[in-house]
Structures are given as structure tokens and as C-alpha cells.
């Protein structure tokens, strides 16, 4: 049995910042709902969320198979019998997920994916985006530069063995709360990528004017703005296509971002400008029927001297054409 390593003074609890009453003190080895045992801590995200790996625990494997079969059968039934509401059903059946593109890119030089791999990845992403547009009718609102890859069961088993033989360092405070460090899950084999990160998803409308996207990709259109967030430049070149900071204080600026959009994608159509609620004429004059309105730019920020082709630095010849 391995000794449980403790975190030293270099890991002060004051950095955690979140009062104890606002989060659940998960412990490695804890059993939830008599079936799901905590194997280890995978990491953490925004808004004080953490990610944990669970294992379905039972001493009777045949019973698990039978349970899964009956749940699948229940999900095929459509009934008006009120008793159907009183029978437990399976909400979802899924395979655990693995590393995202950000982790995957770190294995390559300069964090740039090879072109053949990039093309294959885009096929999966664009099929997912097409489903969001044509079937789900939702606006994702996030970026696709971090889709998740599926992984094999062997990676989960290795993670569990490592936690058993080399337990994660932890710290116990005066309230008996246990704070763990994260253990990286590094699969040796990957499956196909899936879109995730639905924290900014919008549902029920076809057009939006609120801030539904990451700052550098924000666009005042309908649910098809999802295509803006594919992030080809981020994945392939490891950089953003649009500048979002500038000036003496290097501050984030809507105006600078808009200037880069204009020089790379030409000026927006008048219909698009008119459909923007947030004072579009601060940046453009009425312009009549003039659609390309470079000359009508009103603000003091200089439109950058950049062309789209110059931003791509990796391709040559026909690939770049």
C-alpha cells in the first residue's frame, strides 16, 4: 500500500479562494449512488469546476450486462401508460472522453498539426457543425479548437493503476477537507474527435445580438456563426487570425478586432450593419448603397496593412493557393 503524499507549504489553501460551503468535497475512493467510485482528479475548469474520473463498480458483471440491455430496451418504448414515469430508465449511454486538441498539439513541433492530420480533423469538426446548424438549430458559442478525442479503456485502467501505486498528493485542512492535485490522463491511442464545451450554447432563436462567442470571433449573425469558431488558424498555425489587443496599454479593443475583420474579409454588407443593434453607425456612416465601405471608415484606428495570405506561414505552392 503506497503512502499518501501530502502537499507542502508551497501549496497554500488561501489560493483556493472558494468557501467550503460552495463546493462538494469529493474524495478519491468515494462511492456515489452505490455504483460510481472516484478513481482520481483529472483537472479543473472555469467557475471553480473540477473534473473527476469515475468507475462503475459492481461485483456481478453479468448483472451489469443485463441491466444495460433492459435499459436499452426501455429507451425503445413509447407509451402513454403513466406507470412508465415510475420506472427507472437510462438517461444516456456514452464512452468516456480523453485529451483535447490543445493537449494533442503539444506533441508536435511548434504546436502545429501536420497538414494531413489537420484536414482529417476538419472533416470531423465540420460534420459536427453541420449537425448543429441543420438539425439541432443551436448556436454553440464556443471555439472548436478544443474538441475532445475518445480513448480506449486501457488508458482508464492505466490511470487507475497509477493512482493506486502512486497516489496523488493531497492536503487536508482544519475542516478535514481534502484538496488533491490533478493527474494527467495520457492515452496511447485516440478515437475520433467530438465537439463539446457547450457552456455558451444558445437555444431557441435564429438570431442573436448578445455576446455569444469568444471575443476575437464575435459576429452579429444567426446560428451559423458557429463556422467562425472552427479556429483553423488556431489549430494549424497556433495563433489567432484577428488582433484583439493594441494601443499604448495593449488593451482589448472591439475597434481593433473590427479593423482586422475589415481588412481580411472586406467590409460588411449594409444589411448586416443595419441589423446590428449596438450603435453600428459609430463605426460606419450610412453609405447609401455602397457595400464596400473602406472609404467610409469613421474611427481613428488605422486599418492594418495585412492580407489574408500573409497570415499563413506554413504552406507553400498549391497547398497555400
TrEMBL record:
This protein's GO CC annotations: cytoplasm; nucleus
EC numbers: 2.7.11.1
Family annotation (InterPro entries): Kinase-like_dom_sf, SRPK
Keyword set, alphabetical order: ATP-binding, Kinase, Nucleotide-binding, Serine/threonine-protein kinase, Transferase
Gene3D superfamilies found in the cross-reference section: Phosphorylase Kinase, domain 1, Transferase(Phosphotransferase) domain 1
GO MF terms held by the record: ATP binding; protein serine/threonine kinase activity
Coiled-coil parts of chain: none
Domain of life, per lineage: Eukaryota
GO biological process: regulation of mRNA processing; spliceosomal complex assembly
Catalytic activity as recorded in UniProt: L-seryl-[protein] + ATP = O-phospho-L-seryl-[protein] + ADP + H(+); L-threonyl-[protein] + ATP = O-phospho-L-threonyl-[protein] + ADP + H(+)
PANTHER family: PROTEIN KINASE DOMAIN-CONTAINING PROTEIN-RELATED (PTHR47634)
Protein name: non-specific serine/threonine protein kinase
Organism this protein belongs to: Pholiota conissans
Origin organism lineage: Eukaryota, Fungi, Dikarya, Basidiomycota, Agaricomycotina
Amino acid at each position: 500500500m503506497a503512502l499518501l503524499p501530502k502537499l507542502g507549504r508551497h501549496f497554500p489553501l488561501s489560493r483556493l479562494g472558494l468557501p467550503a460551503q460552495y463546493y462538494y468535497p469529493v474524495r478519491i475512493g468515494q462511492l456515489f449512488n452505490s455504483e460510481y467510485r472516484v478513481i482520481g482528479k483529472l483537472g479543473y475548469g472555469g467557475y471553480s469546476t473540477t473534473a473527476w474520473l469515475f468507475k462503475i463498480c459492481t461485483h456481478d458483471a453479468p448483472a451489469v450486462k443485463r441491466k444495460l440491455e433492459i435499459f436499452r430496451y426501455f429507451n425503445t418504448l413509447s407509451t402513454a401508460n403513466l406507470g412508465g414515469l415510475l420506472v427507472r430508465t437510462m438517461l444516456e449511454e456514452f464512452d468516456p472522453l480523453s485529451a483535447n486538441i490543445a493537449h494533442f498539439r503539444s506533441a508536435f513541433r511548434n504546436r502545429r498539426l501536420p497538414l494531413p492530420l489537420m484536414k482529417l480533423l476538419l472533416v470531423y469538426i465540420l460534420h459536427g457543425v453541420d449537425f448543429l446548424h441543420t438539425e439541432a438549430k443551436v448556436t454553440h458559442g464556443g471555439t472548436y479548437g478544443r474538441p475532445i478525442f475518445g480513448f480506449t479503456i486501457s488508458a482508464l485502467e492505466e490511470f487507475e493503476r497509477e493512482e493506486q501505486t502512486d497516489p496523488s498528493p493531497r492536503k487536508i485542512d482544519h475542516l478535514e477537507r481534502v484538496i488533491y492535485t490533478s493527474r494527467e490522463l495520457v492515452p496511447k491511442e485516440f478515437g475520433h474527435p467530438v465537439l463539446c464545451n457547450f457552456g455558451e450554447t444558445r437555444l431557441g432563436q435564429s438570431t442573436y445580438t448578445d455576446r455569444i462567442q469568444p471575443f476575437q470571433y464575435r459576429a452579429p449573425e444567426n446560428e451559423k456563426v458557429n463556422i467562425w469558431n472552427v479556429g483553423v488558424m488556431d489549430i494549424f498555425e497556433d495563433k489567432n487570425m484577428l488582433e484583439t489587443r493594441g494601443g499604448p496599454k495593449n488593451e482589448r479593443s472591439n475597434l481593433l478586432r473590427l479593423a482586422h475583420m475589415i481588412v481580411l474579409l472586406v467590409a460588411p454588407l449594409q444589411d448586416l450593419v443595419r441589423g446590428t443593434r449596438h450603435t453600428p453607425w459609430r463605426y460606419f456612416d450610412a453609405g447609401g448603397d455602397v457595400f464596400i465601405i473602406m472609404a467610409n471608415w469613421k474611427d481613428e484606428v488605422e486599418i492594418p496593412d495585412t492580407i489574408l495570405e500573409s497570415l499563413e506561414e506554413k504552406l507553400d505552392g498549391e497547398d497555400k493557393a
